[in-house]
Amino acid sequence: MPPGGANRRIRFIAGVAFIAVSFLVYPSYLVIPLLPLSGTMKLGITLLASLLSWGMFGVGFYLSGREGYDWLKRRLRR
């Protein structure tokens, strides 16, 4: 096994998992307007959900590295 092979693979899998979980936030955008809260609170929750989603995506992108970038690029070009 090449040096850092297992560690690199674990980072890649963790990165892809973070990216996948970041997309699970999007269904919450459909529920937020239905909550019995003020408009300001709904806006705050929406912004927080967006930051959470993009933050997790960024961490996943960082962890997956170049291998993750190439994998994602291949998936999107199909």
TrEMBL record:
Membrane-spanning intervals of the chain: 12-32, 44-65
The keyword Transmembrane helix belongs to this UniProt entry's keyword annotation: yes
UniProt keyword terms in alphabetical order: Membrane, Transmembrane, Transmembrane helix
Protein's UniProt name: Uncharacterized protein
Record organism: Methylomirabilis oxygeniifera
